[in-house]
Structures are given as structure tokens and as C-alpha cells.
Amino acid sequence: MAAAGNGEATAPPPPRQQEPAPAAGSTSGGGVIASLEEQWRKTKEHAETYPYVWGSYILVYGGLGAYLAWRWGKLRRTEDRVRVLQERLRKLAAAEESQAASSSASTAPIPPPPQQPGAGPVKPASGP
After folding, report:
1. What is the residue-level pLDDT of the chain in tens, covering all 128 positions?
2. What is the CA angle 85-90-94, rounded to 5?
3. Helices 51-106 & 29-49, crossing angle to 10 degrees?
4. Which of 2, 43, 75, 100 lies 20 to 30 Å from 68, alpha-carbon distance?
5. CB of 27 within 8 A of CB of 39?
6. In angstroms, rounded to a whole number, what is the distance separating the alpha carbons of residues 77 and 1?
7. For residues 31 and 21, what is the distance between their CA atoms, to the nearest angstrom?
């Protein structure tokens, strides 16, 4: 029993004689449904008894779910943009490659003369 003056409503406890019956048939398919219904009933009673607790659950987890959904959508949009840019880059690289291949086939470029190591341009001495 709750102490007087703490603001809690005292309700008589539900009879315990109903609980053993679902446990006896828990091995069959009907027992699973019965246990789910019992759990639903207990949860519903708890939600009716403590509405502020359940309101805070909804606020916190609902906000978290909304944030995660927003971030997931933003990630998907970014991935789509990256795929489009990659495809454009791939097409541009293929076009440049084909252009370079066609220009090299028509005129063979003269390779530059090989440089000898150490025979680079001479740097002028810096003066005062």
C-alpha cells in the first residue's frame, strides 16, 4: 500500500489466479498469442498509469528516429550526387582518352630529347 500524502492512487492488485492458465498452454501457438496479449495489457496499463514516462519515451525516441531518418536521407542524396559526378568524370575521361588517341594516330608527336643526369640548366649566381 502507498503511504498517505505521496500523491499515488491506491488500486487493488489484479487477481493472480488468471496468470497460470496461459503458462500451461505456452507450448502451443495459442499460448504465444495469449502471452503477447497479456504483455500488451500490462504495457497498456503501465502507459495509462504513467503517461509522463511514456510521453518522454515518445519524445526522446521519436526525436532520435526523426533525426536518424533525416541524416539517412541526407546521406542518400549525397551518395546520389557523388554517383552522378563520378559518371560525368568517367565520361569526360573517356572522351579525352579517345580524343588523345585519335590525335596521336593522325600526327605522331616527336619525343623530346632525353636529358642527361646532372646536365640541367645553369643557375646564375646571386649577387649582393
Report:
1. 445 555 555 565 555 555 445 444 445 568 999 999 999 999 999 999 999 999 999 999 999 999 999 999 999 999 999 999 999 999 999 999 999 888 876 665 566 666 666 655 666 666 66
2. 150
3. 110
4. 43
5. no
6. 57
7. 9
